[in-house]
Amino acid sequence: MDPDLQAAHAASFTHGADEYAAVRPGYPGAAVDLLLPDGSQDVLDLAAGTGKLTASLVARGARVVAVEPADGMRAQLTAALPDVEVHAGTAEAIPLPDASVDVVTVAQAWHWFDEPVASAEVARVLRPGGLVGIVWNDRDEDVPWVGAYGALLHDAAGPQLARGTHPELGEAFTDVLRTDVRWDHVLTPDELVRLAGTRSYAIVLPPDERAALLDRVRTLVTTHPDLAGLTAIRVPYVTRVYTARRR
Ligand SMILES: C[S@@+](CC[C@H](N)C(=O)[O-])C[C@H]1O[C@@H](n2cnc3c(N)ncnc32)[C@H](O)[C@@H]1O
């Protein structure tokens, strides 16, 4: 790739990571509780991104190692959490020794993995009896304005990958449980528009198409009867938490 183009791509990822850190939701305390059973000490946050979940794990006193393939995301994570050990790496080739952690967490990322390969890698790095916790934040699209917001994004994105996805962890795991945690993320109208722009498809859209998409989102956010005039908008989420034990 020509160096100017490569630099432009790198810059767009860095911008994407900044926006991601600023407006994407974190994870509710009740979900984090499920990821850290008593006695958990060493935790791998896999596909850690900008560190949204990592920060909550660190705040609970866990020793957290983060693994993340994207340079821009890792840079944000290190800026926010300078004491966390961060490695470049993927779920399919986790750069940690066998049986080295009590917990592996995966937030908003399992659907990107090669599932059988990632499951085997998670089983390899977990100690026997260790926990894998896989979470997704889904907007509650049963709320009418949230459904309309989602419809705009789905029109541009095609089918949403995460919704309806169930992790297939294989024979190495037992006690698979799903728990739903309901909560609200409060954003300004402007942040709600910017949130749409953090979707990966929106980051790589040609500038005119990206602007048109964000204009449609802004119109919804400023004119929908349930939103018009609000300065703080409660975005309802359901956090899906899947946990399973390493045999
Ligand atoms: C939607 S972000 C979630 C980041 C973070 N866990 C959070 O909750 O904010 C998805 C992350 O998965 C990472 N990712 C994508 N494919 C991956 C893979 N095969 N192995 C590890 N990480 C991957 C991306 O780089 C991105 O940072």
TrEMBL record:
Nucleotidyltransferase in keyword set: no
GO BP, sorted A to Z: methylation
Official protein name in the record: Methyltransferase type 11
Residue span, Methyltransferase type domain: 44-132
Family (UniProt): Belongs to the methyltransferase superfamily.
SUPFAM superfamilies xref list: S-adenosyl-L-methionine-dependent methyltransferases
UniProt cross-references to InterPro entries, sorted A to Z: Diverse_substrate_MTase, Methyltransf_11, SAM-dependent_MTases_sf
